[in-house]
Design brief:
Layout: H1 6-13, H2 17-26, E1 33-34, E2 40-41, H3 44-58, H4 63-66, H5 71-80, H6 84-101, H7 104-118, H8 120-140, H9 146-165, E3 173-182, H10 189-201, E4 203-212, H11 214-224, E5 228-232, H12 242-252, E6 258-261, E7 276-279, H13 282-290
Amino acid sequence: MHSFTIKDLENLSGIKAHTIRIWEQRYSFLKPDRTDTNIRVYSNDELKKLLNVALLNKFGFKISHIDKMDEGELWDKILSLNQQDALQERIVNILIQCMIDLDMEAFEDELDNFITAKGIEKTISQIIFPFLEKIGILWLTNHINPGQEHLVTNIIRQKLIVGIENVRNTVKIDKTVLLFLPETEYHELSLLFMNYMLKNKGVSTIYLGSSIPLRDVEYLVKLKKPDYIYTHLTSVGPKFNFERFVDNLSKNFPHTPVIISGLLTTTYEKKILPPINFKKSYAEVMEFLAGF
């Protein structure tokens, strides 16, 4: 990963592109290069700096003050933040920086330390999922090297599987959810997260995994009769037709609610009807879970 667009910086830092442009004009911590067509491009170091600046600014430090800090003082101020939200965001930012630097040992150490302190459930909900939400846009726009993606996802996948295997819930809910990703969709982490959250609530799950032909889903739905079908779309192959996929789900499973979450749901413009139900944000996914 060598450069980022201003939109990447907006998605990763939470700072609007308009504000980033103003900061560039007034302060010295961001100095993007320009392409031949005058488009801003930002380096790894500038992204990391903006993540730290955005964190301090969010929790009360003025930009004019932050701009005068050297790297040591800036990091000391970040470490001094003691609000729970700030601690979580700091760790998510560290994970992003470790991913950029390909420092997988430090990446895993951060996760393991949080698991030791807070447990796997809080690590998944407070650290892993916010991290995935932030970097998911990079996967969608191909602004992350596939090698980096594989290294990161394999580590997180291991943590999620350990969490799923360790679920011990004495409360059982008489509902079953079948989870799958359609053909050419291999980004499995959000689906694993949902599998963990459902099992943790006492819901039975049928987990099929990634790139599953719809005929296989149809066979298992007829056999197992789940109460819901769940899929998550992050970055499918170029031949994937979302509209046709939605139509096929409606025709094949007219009596089973189908929940679709993920970035692609935010770009779908046609009206959707039952049994299809979109969950376009983390909040909507959590609302669905709360309904069990």
